[in-house]
Amino acid sequence: MNNNTKLRISDRDFSKRFPKNFLWGGATAANQIEGAYLTDNKGLTIADILPGGKIRLEWLMEERPLEILADTHTYPNHVGIDHYTHYKEDIALFAEMGFQCYRFSISWARIFPTGEEQQPNEAGLAFYDSLIDEMLKYGIEPVVTISHFEMPLHLAKKYKGWQSRELISLFERYCDVLFTRFGDRVKYWMTFNEINSAFMMPLMSLGFSTSGNNFQNPKIFQALHHQFVASSLAVKLAKQKMPECQIGCMMIAAPFYPYSCDPKDILYAYEIERIWNYFCSDVQVRGKYPAFIERHLFENGIDIDIKPGDLALLAEHTVDYIALSYYNSCTEKYPTGNENRVGGNMMSGVENPYLPTSEWGWEIDPTGLRVSLNQIYNRYEKPLFIVENGLGAVDTVNPDGSIEDDYRISYLHSHLIAASESIKDGVDLMGYTMWGCIDLVSASTGQMSKRYGFIYVDKQDDGTGTFARSKKKSFDWYKTVLQTNGESL
């Protein structure tokens, strides 16, 4: 060898934005699109009692009766976008865009209406059989979320949700049925959607409401421990039944910026970020409780009931990849009581003067996505999967039926560029599924008018509409992105 020959550290191709095997697609959740909330023996879920409109946020933040109050409230989740009957049309549209994968959730209450049945509901299994087969017909890889804010309501009422250890065995039975029935056709799984959302909206995530500071609430930490154990049991069972499968955890990701270089701001932001971004993933990825949580629990007088074998189970059965949602960053300032706070995806922070906001007040920060991906990957060195990212906005249908959603194209373009830059940074990014690829009911506000999709659904906040599907301008834009594997960006 010539002594002047220069060796490269790696053979990565920096001229390409995304690797050849990158998984492109879209994402939804059963409770936000399916409708048919009592059809074919489906049971009620937590989502079915959440009212439509901005009052939903009050229900999620306060303790409320777990009942449907039809005389005074509307419940858009009950009809969704009627995906239960339109799924073939919807999957055909996804295929036309060129989806390589589609992330969806299975409603626990379609399979076990109360969560306690000994035998699953065959009609529910048959629906998901048909849905998966329809995807595979077009070469679309199913990506399944096992639990996406769809706990059977009965379990919340009887057991107070994940506060009870009883839910672990019931969840394991549910997973066993899913893996047995669909394991020959589904390779990619994830256990609990946005597991760290428990700190902000535990009703959806854990099946109960609380008041006060959730970072100091023993019920939250106990319920999360039960979910950690259930997640590890799901990983164990998945690997036994489907040795080649990939099963991951799923979290809300957001970098936390200090408002200033004041060390108090820096430390305050850092301490919140550790709990929010890394506690749940440390347990599921590293297989153990992090030291900073041990201190947090001790200083707040929180004792978790941990049974013999729990910690060994967590250590032995960790996840294969980390899925994440990204919508916004957060900025934090040491609290003085005078902060102007802004909202986000189940979180809030002080106003960042350098960032624009969406119509719903969520700050738009594509650079934050690159920061988060690098932070998470450098901590764990496990493959990452962006399974939610998108812009909720009011769309206007023009007289000719067209929808010019250039704002959505701009948002997605900037975030995909940020994702591609993270890949060049060395992040192992598996794929990208845009959230709400077809319009759906907003989880946080229960509105149809807060639209995300490439596909418009004629359904309005007042309940009117035909459910007709139509393509927005972003439909063809995303189609080109997929056709070129991101090189058109």
Please give the structural blueprint.
Blueprint: E1 23-27, H1 30-33, H2 55-61, H3 83-97, E2 101-105, H4 108-111, H5 122-137, E3 141-147, H6 153-159, H7 166-182, E4 188-192, H8 202-206, H9 218-241, E5 246-252, E6 256-258, H10 263-286, H11 291-299, H12 310-316, E7 321-325, E8 330-332, E9 341-343, E10 348-350, H13 366-380, E11 384-388, H14 406-425, E12 429-435, E13 455-457, E14 469-471, H15 473-483
Parallel strand pairs: 1-2, 1-12, 2-3, 3-4, 4-5, 5-7, 6-8, 7-11, 11-12
Antiparallel strand pairs: 9-10, 13-14
Helix pairs in contact: 3-5, 7-9, 9-12, 13-14
- In whole angstroms, the N-to-C terminal distance is 40 Å
Q: What is the oligomer described by this structure?
A: single chain
| Structural class computed from helices and strand pairing | alpha/beta
Number of discrete helical segments: 15
Number of domains: 1
Structure summary, number of beta strands: 14
Mean pLDDT, as a whole number?
A: 94
**Rg, Cα atoms, Å:** 22 Å
Strand content: 5-15%
**Helical content class:** 25-40%
InterPro entries: GH (IPR017853), GH_1_N_CS (IPR033132), Glyco_hydro_1 (IPR001360), Glyco_hydro_1_AS (IPR018120)
Active site: 388
Family: Belongs to the glycosyl hydrolase 1 family.
GO molecular function: beta-glucosidase activity
